[in-house]
Inverse folding.
């Protein structure tokens, strides 16, 4: 059914398509469910040209409405970062890649049709890949080994492109780096995020003590005492292996297309509001620790080798040797040094995965609140979540990561 769009949205879409919106039939689809867009409102729309019937299936991602000036400024930083990514970083990366005909074209990011940077009204228009049989994994389910194998190969490819860009076009890399904000540093300053880190660590410690894992609980005390300081320290990356990262890497920000045998055929990376310059370990550890079950956690070394082989293969396409760019031993050292980022984000996201849909919070309201957020209160009944955070903590302890 044809529907009317708000005039502001209509004008914006017309500018994005360089056409008069009156030339299109507008079909609105259901908006995002709770948990699909934590830091934004998603509007799904199909525009069908009345003359040639050509369709544009679009997602309009827009900033959550809020009245508090501090929250508006914070949300604006998130959107500006993503706008910089789509309008500056991606075009430069793809242009760079064109100078290497033998390199596999990186086509794992949704097409961006346009952006709006007006403070408090930020918008990004993206290709709606659901119409091409891509889907976000079910939030409540663990990520499978097959999905992680495909993901780690993809991160190897994406990171190789970024390492090559940094190595060969260092001046351009430095220029882009200066305009990109590390929004994790803004996140940790919010009472919402800071309190949730501490409360999450306390919950894990309670679970460990119930299971008589006193030594692991003891090791976790530093997270109970100062999780926010640990996070601030680890996210302040100063080593030499920094590249443009995906950033917010849990499975809610990845779309998979599966073949007839239900194996991953292609992947699209979503949501670059938290992209920043850092170690590849930030992407890998966050992705892995936010979705791996007990059996998958045991296969960490396998997945790191899969990643590294992909990184090596794709660096070769730019005439670079992986041993000179990012030696395997350096990667392992950085994992031990920086995987606490993935651990912290992991136990946060495992909590989100286990929430009832109607319990998922309104982030804009929580950001305005000075009260601590205790996600333990919002968990589904049963021990799925507690089993998950126990397995994650034990993995960290057994591997001497905490």
């Amino acid at each position: 059914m044809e529907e009317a769009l708000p005039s502001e949205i209509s004008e914006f879409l017309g500018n994005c398509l360089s056409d008069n919106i009156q030339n299109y039939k507008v079909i609105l689809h259901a908006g995002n469910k709770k948990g699909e867009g934590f830091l934004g409102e998603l509007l799904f729309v199909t525009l069908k040209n009345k003359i040639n019937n050509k369709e544009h299936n679009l997602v309009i991602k827009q900033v959550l409405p809020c009245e508090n000036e501090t929250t508006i400024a914070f949300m604006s930083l998130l959107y500006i970062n993503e706008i910089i990514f789509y309008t500056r970083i991606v075009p430069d990366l793809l242009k760079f890649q064109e100078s290497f005909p033998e390199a596999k074209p990186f086509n794992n990011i949704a097409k961006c049709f346009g952006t709006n940077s007006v403070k408090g009204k930020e918008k990004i228009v993206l290709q709606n890949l659901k119409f091409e049989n891509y889907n976000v994994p079910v939030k409540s389910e663990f990520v499978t080994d097959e999905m992680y194998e495909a993901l780690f190969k993809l991160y190897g490819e994406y990171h190789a492109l970024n390492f090559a860009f940094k190595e060969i076009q260092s001046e351009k890399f430095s220029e882009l780096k200066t305009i990109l904000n590390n929004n994790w540093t803004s996140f940790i300053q919010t009472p919402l995020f800071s309190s949730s880190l501490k409360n999450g660590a306390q919950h894990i410690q309670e679970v460990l003590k119930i299971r008589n894992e006193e030594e692991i609980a003891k090791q976790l005390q530093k997270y109970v005492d100062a999780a926010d300081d640990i996070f601030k320290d680890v996210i302040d990356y100063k080593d030499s292996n920094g590249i443009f990262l995906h950033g917010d890497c849990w499975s809610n920000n990845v779309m998979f297309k599966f073949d007839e045998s239900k194996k991953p055929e292609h992947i699209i990376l979503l949501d670059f509001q938290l992209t920043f310059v850092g170690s590849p370990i930030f992407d890998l550890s966050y992705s892995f620790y936010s979705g791996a079950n007990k059996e998958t956690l045991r296969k960490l070394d396998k997945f790191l080798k899969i990643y590294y082989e992909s990184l090596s293969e794709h660096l070769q396409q730019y005439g670079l040797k992986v041993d000179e760019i990012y030696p395997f031993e350096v990667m392992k050292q950085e994992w031990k040094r920086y995987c606490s980022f993935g651990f912290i984000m992991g136990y946060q996201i495992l909590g989100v995965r286990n929430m009832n849909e109607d319990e998922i919070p309104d982030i804009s309201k929580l950001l305005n609140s000075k009260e601590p957020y205790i996600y333990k209160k919002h968990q589904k009944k049963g021990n799925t979540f507690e089993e998950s955070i126990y397995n994650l903590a034990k993995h960290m302890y057994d591997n001497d990561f905490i």
